[in-house]
């Protein structure tokens, strides 16, 4: 029989249409959830415009590897379920088009989405996680690190402020600087403005109308031990590079694929040096980036036979049930992936086996459903 090109294009358009309709609300829900988790840091930083958009974009880049396959699975279920409910699948069978002709275009679409997800997992997600970590640390240093009425440790200094007059404006400032034990400093200022230089990793305090009290610990007599210097304006800078983690190894999920390979090779050779996580976490994260992209192709294998079995009554009720079913299946798959990753990092399960085990289980279930649907047809 000649390949049903027109039918394949029709089925592909149906699945793509439902997928595009679903991906927007799924992304909005997941991005909103991520923003709520970081809302306190954004508010404390005092800039809810550019920071909000920047963080939202980074969250969207990170969760796209989950949102795209999930929307595709639900789209397949809705499209095939709609066609089954409208007796279109029976009509296709009457024309000699069986399960293979229905599954083939959706499987091809799933493979294309898997390749797209592979790019997201290997390149986009780790870069977005790295940028997110730097952004959040910068937000914390810019505003949330100094609370009024409390002694705040920032770097090697202790800061105290009476009141915040705005996102950056401060009143009643005390700085205790003991970075040099032989010459500790106390800085008092009536008014100040705080800013953060991301390039230099410096917390900058522009102080007005204050005094610097210096104490000498070199054994001089009491009259010479203290020195007081008044100022009208003073720029006080604190190096916070170590607080931003720039001098520490990156966690596995923030590493690019080439960095992960090098760390895994050094771990195998026993020359890894300091690590941010347990050694199995690096191999598990490496395998995760190649295992997760298989989800759309496997969801195609699972969604087609399940969609053919859906019995829908009222339209709205059937759509709700189908969407819930798709969400539950996707959540179960990703929860199993997280469980297996924990088993690899905490319990010693081989990382390659752990991260590919959910895909193997999903493939077995999908093939079983396809065989059952083929026999029933």
Number of separate strands: 6
Which secondary-structure class do the elements indicate?
alpha+beta
Question: Nearest-angstrom radius of gyration?
Answer: 29 Å
- Which regions have little confidence, pLDDT < 50, spanning 5+ residues? none
Order of helices and strands: HHHHHEEEEEHEHHHHH
Principal-axis shape equals elongated
How would you write the strand order of the largest sheet? Answer: 1-2-3-4-5-6
Relative strand content = 15-25%
Number of domains: 2
Number of helices: 11
Helix content: 55-70%
The overall pLDDT, averaged over residues, is 82
Largest sheet: 6 strands, antiparallel
Question: How far is it from the N-terminal to the C-terminal residue, by CA?
Answer: 18 Å
